[in-house]
Amino acid sequence: MTESLIAFDVLPVGRTSFCIEPAEIVASIPRVGGTKTPNIKRIENLAPDFVIANFEENTKEDVEALRDLGLNVWVTYPEKVDDTLSLLQDLQQLSDAPKSSHKMITDYKKFLAKPYPVTDTKVLIMIWKNPWMVVGQCTYPHNLVTFAGGCNACSENRYPVMTEDEIIGTKADILILPSEPYKFNQEDIIYWQKKMPGTLVIPFSGEDLFWSGHRSIKACHKLAQFFHKS
Fold it and tell me: How far apart are alpha carbons 158 and 181 in whole angstroms?
């Protein structure tokens, strides 16, 4: 959301330590702790007009603590690519963004109007190691994949734990190893290439997969390149 605000030409008064893009701009924005470890006093001292929280990333206790201080807390929970439009529209209104933000909203409406054709490409997205965890149904990255034309190889909801045998058993055409929340590396890619020789194992930006908002369109286009080979 920090990145989307900046794209709206609105500079936040504070950010979490995980809000790292665009790097050249956020470097000058004060940090207020992590998503699970916010510095409530520091946030209060910044006197923001509103605080953006996330249903999955921030705790109910922290949200209530901020509200008890009289702060306006907006809790987001995008599960679908479509949700991002209303999220951006709400963000535009709450932040009193300048007219330059209107183009992003217009571009996103055009993007939603033309989903990619459905393919039978089975995709599995890993999110953690020891234990292995993957992206399931009813999540934003799942919907991003399906909007781009792919098919989630995991039939369970949310972010289930899977064994190696279960992962191999999905017979996924593409296995995505993102850079966050777990930072998969080249060794992990080689490991799964050996385990699943018939599967395309690719690294992918975790920010693109999990950050809804400003980069959603780009993320969808990047995914679609793997599902729609010319």
Answer: 15
